[in-house]
Amino acid sequence: MFGITPVHLHLLINHLPVVGSIASVLLLLFAILRRNAELKRTALLAFVITAISAYATDATGDGAAHVARQIPGVSRQAIHEHSEAGDTAMDASIVDGLIALVALILAWRKPGGEQTIGDYVRHHKEPNQWLIVATLIVGLVQIYYVSVAAYEGGLIRHPEIQSGYVVPVPGGTNGYVVPVPGGTNAPVVPPIPEPSNDTD
Fold first, then answer.
1. Distance CA 177, CA 182 (A)
2. Angle at which helices 6-13 and 37-68 pack, to 10 degrees?
3. Cα first-last separation, the chain
4. HEC profile for 96-136?
5. Among 88, 81, 92, residue whose Cα is nearest residue 154
6. Virtual CA dihedral for 35, 37, 39, 45, nearest 10 degrees?
7. CA atoms in the 13 A half-sphere facing the CB of 191
8. How many helices (H) and strands (E) does the chain have?
9. Distance CA 89, CA 59 (A)
10. pLDDT tens for residues 126-181?
């Protein structure tokens, strides 16, 4: 109906790991400061969901890369670097998601009998503190790697985010500023043609 392609899917979900990582870390920090077990479990669940979104983003990346390589002007090197950064970001997200999942499972267990979901919520069982700390530390690393992947992905079609990018201005060669060795970048002004002396 909407003609969804791998590129569309990738662009649709590729922000989720970035936003999810930051939101999960902030929520976990808030939960630790509040000493609230329920908020901690919510944050851990957010890390698990973020890991799933990172896997989905990476899985749709290959199809998007295949199409992007055919677009004139798109750098294959930029695509490769984004792909490598995306794989690393996915690995970090999955590791963090697994740690969070283990913490949730251990918090589910209750000595002396089975526990329903209602019991789990009402009793506000405290997740393992060491796993909470591990999730937070890996989460900070995760934010770094997903940010790098996002930056590398942006360079594919948005070179203006790169440090040192020169904004095109009218008057340069084909409308672009030409870098001048030594520091400044000035537009190349075409020479003014000499007036004709012909009297014909």
1. 15
2. 150
3. 66
4. HHHHHHHHHHHHHCCCCCCCCHHHHHHHCCCCCHHHHHHHH
5. 81
6. 140
7. 3
8. 6, 2
9. 12
10. 888 999 999 999 999 999 999 988 888 776 766 555 566 566 665 554 444 444 44
Cite the beta strand spans of the chain per DSSP E: 178-179, 185-186
Residues near 53 by beta carbon (within 8 Å), at least 6 away in sequence? 13, 16, 17, 20
Tell me which DSSP letter residue 159 carries: G
Query: SS3 of 168, please?
Result: coil
**How would you classify the pairing of strands 185-186 and 178-179?**
antiparallel
HSE value, Cβ hemisphere, 13 Å, CA-based, for 133: 3
Structure pTM? 0.71
Element (H, E) at 179: strand 178-179
Tokens representing 59 are 């899985």
